[in-house]
Specification:
Elements lengths: L15 E6 L2 H9 L8 E4 L7 E4 L1 H4 L9 H7 L4 E3 L3 H18 L2 E6 L2 E5 L4 H4 L2 H16 L3 E6 L2 H11 L4 E3 L5 H5 L12 H8 L6 H4 L4 H8 L3 H8 L15 E12 L2 H21 L2 E11 L5 E12 L2 H15 L6 E13 L4 H6 L2 H26 L25
Parallel strand pairs: 2-4, 7-8
Antiparallel strand pairs: 1-6, 1-7, 2-3, 5-6, 9-12, 10-11, 10-12
Helix pairs in contact: 4-6, 9-11, 11-12, 13-14
The chain binds thymidine-5'-triphosphate (TTP) and magnesium ion (2 copies).
């Protein structure tokens, strides 16, 4: 039995991860030309007015940084290797990185060419704790793309981003919820994304250099130094920020529809067809990492008479079983109206991101657990194939997954 049971609320999971590629453009060039390994490599314009876009870590030990004039970089490292940028190539690799992230984790929010936030709380059942998910992501990127990346994790997106920077290069750092303020305290205020030179100078006037010192000045002083961002930064500094991913729903509805050349006249046949459609819609939902609150059944007879009936679910779901139940119930209610069916459709509406209520997933009964499991299984099967999943052998990043006994069997996925 789970140790959490009966001990009050579960410990808060630092499930917001920030993954950022290390020296991205430069790492790509080194990967593609292994002769450059270990050398001070920069990507950027070589001309008189060129600037450094990316600097390899060997270049950084010489003090070379992004946005530095190339002439300065040359002075710091006479043996500097300058590679002209290949934008399209980096964008392609960026898409491959995001593909890997999306194949393991439901909620991914890309924020630049080489970084993304992830909400991994929904992926825990299959892949383990955030530390293990971070390791799995980094290992997969390393194995499939031969590139280094770093991950930070926290209960807050801002802290996760700070943590990934601390973990670089080629590392990971997950900050437990209770240790957030302690982790931040010694860091310079400039470590906070969005605190630029002006804000740094404003804080210095009050003797504030570290994030910990933010907690020691009155809120009026903080407001003068930071303006409208003051309350947000105060929350960050005391470890109470919980800002996660932006929850964007990509489609308002999704569904499937079919017209037959020969009308369906057999009620059992109609039931079978709409059942298959419900399964298909559930799979689409899971592929989109979405859950639906409403399922809609549409039927049309040869004379054009169309009925559309919807059913609201008691809990948002991506479970094929749930959707089937509801569309079949709608069919049973309406079947007497239409003797011959020319067209049938099943549609899921009122969609939400699957990971938007992760704690509920933890706490609800078996039906709730199904949702997590089905979603995670789909992703795992897509990525690793059924064989490795059933053996559990390649999922070494998630010890504990194989021996779980409270999860239902995955047989529903074996249906074609
Ligand atoms: P970053 O992630 O900021 O930097 P990085 O990946 O080079 O290094 P780090 O290990 O510190 O993350 O930026 C990603 C890419 O964006 C970088 O490789 C090149 C490009 N870039 C520029 O073109 N100009 C810039 O000023 C910066 C900061 C980045
Ligand atoms: Mg980077
Ligand atoms: Mg970046």
């Amino acid at each position: 039995m789970d140790a959490r049971t009966g001990t009050g609320s579960p410990p808060e999971v630092p499930g917001i991860l920030h993954l950022d590629m290390d020296a991205f453009f430069a790492s790509v060039e080194v990967r593609d030309d292994p002769g450059l390994r270990g050398l001070p490599v920069v990507v950027g314009g070589a001309g008189a007015r060129g600037v450094v876009a990316a600097a390899s870590y060997p270049a950084r030990t010489r003090g070379i940084r992004s946005a530095m004039p190339m002439a300065t970089a040359r002075r710091l490292a006479p043996d500097l290797v300058i590679v002209p940028p290949r934008g399209g190539h980096y964008r392609e690799i960026s898409a491959q990185v995001m593909e890997i992230l999306g194949s393991v984790v439901a909620e991914v929010e890309q924020i630049s060419v080489d970084e993304a936030f992830l909400d991994v709380r929904g992926a825990r059942r299959l892949f383990g704790e955030p530390e293990q998910i971070a390791a799995l992501l980094r290992r997969t990127i390393r194995e499939e793309l031969d590139l280094p990346s770093s991950v930070g994790g926290s209960v807050s997106r801002a802290v996760a981003k700070i943590a990934s920077a601390q973990a670089k290069p080629d590392g990971q750092l997950i900050v437990p919820a209770a240790r957030t303020a302690e982790f931040l305290a010694p860091l310079p205020v400039s470590a906070v994304s969005g605190i630029g030179p002006k804000a740094v100078a404003g804080l210095e006037r009050f003797g504030v250099h570290t994030i910990g010192q933010i907690r020691e000045i009155p809120s009026s002083a903080l407001a003068r130094a930071l303006g409208p961002r003051a309350p947000e930064i105060a929350h960050l500094a005391d470890g109470s920020d919980r800002t996660g991913l932006g929850h964007r729903v990509r489609d308002k509805s999704l569904g499937t529809e079919r017209t037959w050349d020969e009308d369906l006249t057999d009620a059992d046949e109609v039931r079978r067809r709409i059942t298959v459609m419900a399964d298909d819609v559930a799979r689409q939902l899971r592929r989109g990492e979405l859950v639906a609150r409403t399922v809609v059944l549409k039927l049309r007879s040869p004379d054009g008479t169309t009925i559309t009936r919807s059913s609201t679910l008691d809990q948002p779901t991506a479970s094929g079983e749930r959707l089937r139940e509801h569309v079949v119930a709608l069919w049973e209610r309406e079947r007497h109206r239409l003797r011959r069916i020319r067209l049938a459709g099943v549609r899921a509406t009122h969609l939400e991101p699957e990971a938007s209520t992760p704690y509920q997933h933890e706490l609800t009964a078996r039906s709730g657990q199904w949702r997590d499991l089905e979603a995670a299984m789909d992703r795992a099967v897509d990525r690793f194939g059924t064989t490795s999943l059933s053996r559990g052998s390649t999922l070494s990043g998630a010890p504990g997954t194989a021996q779980r006994t409270d999860a239902p069997s995955p047989s529903e996925h074996d249906r074609p």
